[in-house]
Design a protein that fits this description.
Layout lengths: L3 E6 L6 H17 L2 E6 L2 H7 L9 E4 L2 E5 L12 E5 L6 H9 L5 E5 L7 H5 L3 E5 L2 E6 L16 H10 L1 H10 L9 E5 L7 H10 L4 E6 L4 H8 L9 E4 L2 E6 L4 H10 L2 E5 L2 H8 L4 E4 L7 H13 L5 H15 L4 H9 L2 H16 L4 H11 L2
Parallel strand pairs: 1-2, 1-5, 2-4, 5-6, 6-8, 9-10, 9-13, 10-12, 13-14
Antiparallel strand pairs: 3-4, 7-8, 11-12
Helix pairs in contact: 1-15, 7-13, 12-13
């Protein structure tokens, strides 16, 4: 019999954790035929990614996944064969006891945060803590062989390439969001945390010789864009034009539509983990706003990824790309960085597709998890 899986997710305010676990749960069901319960502590936030969700229902099935509301009022359940604690979340004490009481000890995994740092390969799949006789293991997603890989649904890259080759499909999708690009207009999506570097980039886009349409899904960066525009409010459906730049606010869309938004744009500015991965599957140049951490340790993670990603670029293109990312994440001069980057736009476009193919040749995260489970039997 196929193993049954429990995935536990504590939602924070940036949607990356629920975004990753929701994609993973769906894929384990759809592609591996597994029985999956997804335990989520905040259904209202989850609803942003899955509008069909009934937020007042503690137990329901969505897209083949059993969704359970995880609250302080914990009701006894049998532990699953495979238990995933996403991003080091703490499991309920009664559930830990249920794990320990099983005749066959479950496989307990800590699905950790994504990183390109060298030490990830050495720590992947190593044993971690124990609860009684139940051993927990580290499981690290990653960009290189020897890690757990990245979330990638079967056929995703073929679907993306077909969509990008179909001008009518792209036009119809954008029209559904109320977006009507003009001929020759550059399309950029902007999904980021609050960032003082926003103003410098928007200044450069407004002064550019080529028109740009900036598509901003509702979120935390919207306040910075509003301040730059000098308007009292900026809401879904609003459009503003400053020089060569048209700014358009989009609704927060389900994951499949967000993928298509990324596929539709020439550049994608993204944040966190889930959208960071999806932007790489889009095969377009991307700008990552990494989540800020104390003592700037996030910048080490940023640099580790840049080392990997920019391999194969010419020295001038690599310098321009690195400068663009560093300016975005350290409140640097985005106007100068953007100008330098555009001199290498063609090379960066080719490189983004090449990088996507390279990542796509590796095992995907869900398959790596299933393989590890099978090897542990």
């Amino acid at each position: 019999m196929p193993a049954n899986w429990d995935i536990f997710c504590t939602v924070v305010d940036n949607y990356g954790d629920i975004g990753v676990t929701w994609r993973l749960a769906r894929q384990l069901v759809a592609e591996h035929g597994l029985t999956v319960r997804l335990w989520v502590d905040d259904l209202r936030s989850f609803e942003r990614l899955c509008p069909e969700l009934a937020i007042d229902c503690t137990q329901q099935v969505q897209q083949g996944v059993e969704v359970r509301h995880w609250s302080g009022d914990w009701q006894p359940v049998d532990a699953a064969d495979v238990v995933i604690a996403a991003f080091a979340c703490q499991l309920p004490a009664p559930y830990l006891e249920a794990m320990a009481e099983r005749e066959r000890v479950p496989l307990w995994l800590n699905l950790d945060y994504l990183s390109a740092e060298d030490w990830i390969v050495g720590c992947h799949r190593l044993p971690s803590l124990k609860y009684k006789q139940v051993q927990k293991f580290f499981f690290f997603p990653g960009f290189v062989p020897g890690t757990g890989g990245l979330l990638r649904e079967a056929g995703l890259l073929e679907q993306r390439r077909a969509f990008q080759a179909d001008r009518l499909a792209r036009r119809d999708f954008l029209r559904g969001l109320g977006v009507e690009p003009t001929d020759g207009e550059r399309l950029i999506s902007l999904f980021a945390y609050e960032n003082p570097a926003v103003a410098g980039w928007l200044d450069a886009l407004a002064a550019d010789t080529r028109p740009t349409r900036l598509l901003v899904p509702e979120g935390r960066v919207l306040a910075d864009v509003r301040d730059w525009l000098g308007v009292a409010a900026l809401e879904v459906g609003d459009s503003q034009v400053r020089g060569a730049l048209a700014v358009q606010v989009l609704p927060f869309v389900p994951q499949q539509d967000y993928d298509r938004l990324l596929w539709s744009c020439d550049f994608n500015a993204i944040r966190g983990e889930d959208s960071f991965i999806r932007a790489q599957w889009a095969g377009r140049p991307l700008l990552w706003h990494i989540y800020r951490q104390e003592e700037d340790v996030h910048l080490d993670k940023l640099e580790a990824f840049l080392v990997l990603y920019t391999r194969g670029l010419s020295a001038p293109a690599r310098e321009a790309f690195n400068g663009w990312w560093r300016a975005w994440n350290t409140a640097g001069d985005m106007g100068q960085a953007w100008s330098a980057l555009l001199r290498h736009e063609s090379e960066l476009n080719e490189h983004a597709e090449r990088w996507c193919r390279e990542l796509g040749s590796q095992v995907d995260l869900s398959t790596a998890l299933v393989q590890f489970q099978q090897s542990s039997i």
